[in-house]
Amino acid sequence: MLAPVRHDTQIVTSVTHYTNRLFAFRTTRPASLRFRSGEFVMIGLMDAPDPETGRQKPLLRAYSIASPAWDEELEFYSIKVPDGRLTSRLQNIKAGDELILHPKPVGTLVHDALLPGKRLYFFATGTGFAPFASLLRDPLTYEKYNEVIITHTCQLVEDLTYGGEIIETLRTDGIMQELLGPNLVQLKYYPTTTREESPKMGRITDLISSGGMFADLGLPAFDPASDRAMVCGSLAFNLEARGLLEKAGLREGTRSEPGEFVVEKAFVGEGV
Ligand code: FAD
Ligand code: A2P
After folding, report:
1. What's the fold here for domain 111-263?
2. Contact, 53 vs 43, CB < 8 A?
3. Topology match between the domains 8-106 and 111-263
4. What integer is the mean pLDDT of 144-167?
5. 50: buried, middle or exposed (CB in 10 Å: 19+, 13-18, 0-12)?
């Protein structure tokens, strides 16, 4: 007989809606949950009762933990898919509601999958910002690297709000600055949009290929000796980003065989 799936129920403590497609929420954290910043867990709600048996099962989806490992609560950043089985309901959660959490964190966007380096790039599109919201708030990120660069590409300016607020807090909150140390001043934020006018427009992949990103940030081209990267976005984006990094001589790593970059899907698309 299969062992029953273990799941814990946590309580939602706050919800913030950013756009009609994006929101973030925080929950209590099980005392036993240990994770590495950048990992994901399965979360969800009880599904509608089976029409024949009346039984209810948990409906779970993979979610990056957006809060850092030191935070006493958990934070998640979520899409609202209009007819999505989970998010059509999850978008209505309120403080005090229950959330199911399967406490088994996993994932490739973790520091120990990368060889030591000097400069760390985080490349995100859409909700792919979530694991980096965790890593950007982790002191280890600034202990390991002299320079940290986060790029975030979205269709619209409003889609950048959650990420922008996290960067703003890192730059202005005295406690964060004390916690994250002097290397925090080396944090560079590079937001771009593709379907609405903004100070920087274009897909990050095009801005890397053209050299525009390096020129804008005052950085040299990728160097496998010093540069490390983490990539999180749609499958098409991840494939293009992987190609660009490999062309520059960086090799993909895993926790068992660390390398110069790591990649994870922000979601699984239709038919993938
Ligand atoms: P689903 O039936 O799961 O998806 C329906 C369709 O919606 C998909 O086929 C896809 O085209 C689209 N879609 C799903 N998720 C997204 C997304 N995030 N951005 C854009 N389009 C999407 N989602 C988050 O919102 N935040 C996260 O931190 C997050 N982390 C993930 C980590 C991993 C490793 C993976 C594999 C997925 C992650 N997802 C995340 C996606 C998440 O698991 C669900 O797909 C999402 O919550 C939608 O669930 P659903 O049941 O409403 O729709
Ligand atoms: P674009 O608007 O040109 O498609 P989505 O919301 O579809 O996940 O996209 C999030 C962001 O990622 C959008 O700005 C989108 O640009 C960009 N994007 C999508 N596919 C790629 C890709 N293959 N390479 C680079 N950027 C991409």
Report:
1. Rossmann fold (3.40.50)
2. no
3. no
4. 97
5. exposed
Q: Which ligand has its closest atom nearest to the C-alpha of 127?
A: 1
Ligand showing the shortest atom-to-Cα distance for residue 155: 2
Compute and round to an integer the Cα radius of gyration of the chain. Answer: 19
Beta-bridge partners for 193: 154, 201
Cβ(236) – ligand 2 distance below 6 Å: yes
Q: How far apart are CA 129 and CA 3, in angstroms?
A: 34
Q: Which two tokens stand for residue 62?
A: 């993979």
Distance, CA of 35 to CA of 22 (rounded, Å): 24
- Indicate whether residue 63 lines ligand 1 (CB < 6 A): yes
Report the CATH fold assignment for 8-106.
Elongation Factor Tu (Ef-tu); domain 3 (2.40.30)
**Beta carbon of 129 within 6 Å of any ligand 2 atom:** no
Domain boundaries, the chain: 8-106, 111-263
Q: Please give the mean pLDDT across all residues of the chain.
A: 94
Q: Model pTM?
A: 0.96
Type of residue numbered 124: A
Strand pairing partners for 265? 233
- Please choose, from the candidates 197, 194, 199, 201, the residue with its C-alpha nearest in 3D space to the C-alpha of residue 234: 194
Close Cβ partners of 183 (under 8 Å, ≥ 6 residues apart): 142, 143, 145, 146, 147, 148
CA–CA separation, 197 vs 110, rounded Å? 33
Element (H, E) at 168: helix 161-172
Under 8 Å between Cβ of 16 and 25: yes
pLDDT at position 262? 98
Q: How far apart are CA 65 and CA 36, in angstroms?
A: 9
Which residues pair with residue 184 across a beta bridge? none
**Residue 272 CB-density burial (10 A; 0-12 exposed, 13-18 middle, 19+ buried):** exposed
